[in-house]
């Protein structure tokens, strides 16, 4: 996915996602996965400053790349479905309600760009969890990565487990097909975010991102 990289993507690849598709998407079995690195520093994240607005700017850049790819594929006559970055899924349209059926994590792991870490986040070996993602599903005859990532490469690392103030990370080794929702105790994480909101005025944490040993 040289073109996506030329437009500013930090990582990009194509995966065969037929294995992870909900019935709504069975006709479009390839996914272009695009990631852009956050440039925000650990210190800024710790201070909770510019955290959400920075993510929003990155997601807007992702959408520019995504729209260019969609235009090009549609013009060539292929079916396309763009799954927007996470902060751009706010409307209540029918298409928005389909988005949760296809997570960016599936596209990125199938494209060989990352694995699901113990933190439940998508981990890239160069940038760790510090990437925002967008996905384009298509039936175009694109060459797919023959080496999808099928299981966690966290190994013995436990940095996120020990640094989570809520004890929410369950130290699980992910394999393709596992439900990554159960890797985190979301109630504990949510309670921590509420606590942070009361203490600092902002429901952010991000310690599992800052302390990841990858990237
Ligand atoms: S965001 Fe904070 S509380 Fe939630 S899992 Fe990560 S480190 Fe734990
Ligand atoms: S901190 Fe270590 S265990 Fe946690 S996601 Fe990153 S690499 Fe995996």
Polypeptide structure, described:
By secondary structure, the protein is α+β, with helices and mostly antiparallel strands. The chain has a domain at 2-114 and 125-138. It has eight helices and six strands; from the N terminus they run αββααβααβββααα. It has a four-stranded antiparallel β-sheet with strand order 1-2-6-3, sandwiched between helices. A two-stranded antiparallel ribbon has the order 4-5. 33% of the residues lie in helices and 14% in strands. Residues 117-119, 123, 154, 157-160, 212-214 line the site of one iron/sulfur cluster.
Question: Looking at the structure, what is the overall shape?
Answer: globular
Number of strands: 6
Ligand list: iron/sulfur cluster
The total of helices stands at: 8
**H/E element sequence:** HEEHHEHHEEEHHH
Classification by helices and strands? alpha+beta
The residue fraction in helices comes out at: 25-40%
Percentage beta strand: 5-15%
CA radius of gyration: 17 Å
Distance between the termini: 21 Å
Please give the order of strands in the largest beta sheet: 1-2-6-3
Characterize the biggest β-sheet: 4 strands, antiparallel
In round numbers, the mean pLDDT is 87
Low-confidence stretches: none
Features:
binds iron/sulfur cluster; two-stranded antiparallel ribbon; four-stranded antiparallel β-sheet; globular; 215 residues; alpha+beta
